[in-house]
Specification:
Bound molecules: 2-Phenylacrylic acid
CATH architecture: Alpha-Beta Barrel
CATH class: Alpha Beta
Number of helices: 11
Radius of gyration: 19 Å
Number of domains: 1
Helix content: 25-40%
Structural class: alpha/beta
Strand content: 15-25%
Strand order of the largest sheet: 3-4-5-10-11-12-13-14
CATH superfamily: Aldolase class I
Order of helices and strands: EEEHEHEEEEEHEHHHEHEHEHEHH
Number of strands: 14
Largest sheet: 8 strands, parallel, barrel
Distance between the termini: 27 Å
Oligomer: single chain
């Protein structure tokens, strides 16, 4: 029987085990530049089979929170090189999560204090984080503007360039963040996409930008080091779709043709309930559509997993399990899971922003 501790080849990345560190926003990159503290934090967690970095802006426009990192300037690439080097020295594997927040932003974080961009000019009822005088504060997101169709090829190019930058910075691959109500998810879903051009309306049109982004990246760096994160029914950042099962069947069917390294699925409400009464979804069926379409990438599951739930998921055919909060407070999580050791509890007050406290000071066994 397969266990979490068995190795797995994921595209061109060899994983020592099936325990993945989920992407976690920590707001510790002032000026959007990755730093030595971050290198320490990630290297401490290098016994994960795979580390997925915190969401990382592909462009200044893609930025939506204070002190989250980017991957578009020389300084940022140099910062990330420290991180990938430290993780590789510690024997780990690391991919970077590529992020455009779309409407989940604030004018204070946008180039020239412009409006955040979105498929349609519909405000998200959600918060973002600004840091004033070192203190993180949650504020409402700003009113967005609808992107012109002519702007979309530039965004596709920003993703492609960020993927190239990732490889140049020593990452083992990239994960496209198409989940949690950010730009690509905003395009996918009916609640946030009211466009009447080729990028709105039908499922085919709403999925167009996502598939263009994926094709551009895969053509450039090769599918064997590309993954994608999806969240079919999450209410995170105020997204909703009238028919998520049909929408994601279409998306996954087209992803199946791309020879991706993995598909990463958030089940239920991100960081919350795994089942949502008024948003049912059949994840097993989604995986079957992927496999029937020829998709051979690893199937990664996430959201509220315990060791017991993880073992059940492996029995049902999942290949990888991503743990988020448990990795914040347990740098040696794989060893703890293997030995049944107790887990440190995460301190929520230090999740977003700050220094090494609640970041690099959690004890190992
Ligand atoms: C928590 C706080 C800020 C951003 C996501 C990137 O939900 C995030 C995020 C999470 O995917």
């Amino acid at each position: 029987m397969t266990t979490l501790f068995d190795p797995l080849q994921v595209g061109q990345i060899s994983l020592a085990n099936r325990i993945v560190m989920a992407p976690l926003t920590r707001n510790r990159a002032p000026g959007a530049i990755p730093n030595a503290l971050m290198a320490t934090y990630y290297a401490q967690r290098a016994t994960a089979g795979l580390i997925i970095t915190e969401a990382t802006a592909i462009s200044p426009q893609g930025q939506g929170y204070a002190d989250v990192p980017g991957l578009y300037s020389t300084e940022q690439l140099d910062g990330w090189k420290q991180v990938t080097h430290a993780v590789h020295e510690a024997g780990g594997k690391i991919v970077v999560q590529l992020w455009h927040v779309g409407r989940v932003s604030h004018t204070e974080l946008q180039p020239h204090f412009g409006k955040p961009v979105a498929p349609s000019a519909i405000r998200a009822h959600t918060k973002t984080v600004l840091i004033h005088d070192g203190v993180p504060t949650f504020v409402d997101t700003s009113e967005p503007r609808a992107l012109e169709a002519e702007e979309l090829p530039e965004i596709v190019q920003d993703y492609r360039r960020a993927a190239e930058n990732a490889i140049a910075s020593g990452f083992d691959g990239v994960e496209v963040h198409a989940a949690n109500g950010y730009l690509l998810d905003q395009f996918l879903k009916t609640g946030s996409n009211h466009r009447t051009d080729d990028y709105g309306g039908s499922i085919k049109n709403r999925a167009r930008l996502l598939l263009e982004v994926m094709r551009a990246i895969v053509d450039d760096v090769g599918g064997s080091r590309v993954g994608i994160r999806l969240s079919p029914v999450t209410p995170a950042n105020d997204v909703v779709d009238t028919d998520p099962q049909q929408l994601f069947d279409y998306v996954i069917h087209h992803l199946a043709e791309m020879n991706l390294a993995y598909i990463h699925v958030i089940e239920g409400a991100t960081g919350g309930a795994r089942e949502i009464a008024d948003r049912p979804f059949d994840y097993q069926s989604l995986k079957e559509v992927y496999r029937q379409g020829g998709g051979a990438g690893a199937w990664m599951v996430n959201n509220g997993y315990t060791l017991e739930l993880a073992n059940q998921a492996l029995e049902r055919g999942a290949d990888l399990v991503a743990f988020g909060r448990a990795f914040i407070s347990n740098p040696d999580l794989p060893q703890r899971l293997r030995t049944g050791a107790a887990l440190n509890a995460p301190d929520r007050s230090t999740w977003y922003g700050g220094d090494g406290k609640g970041y690099t000071d959690y004890p190992t066994l």
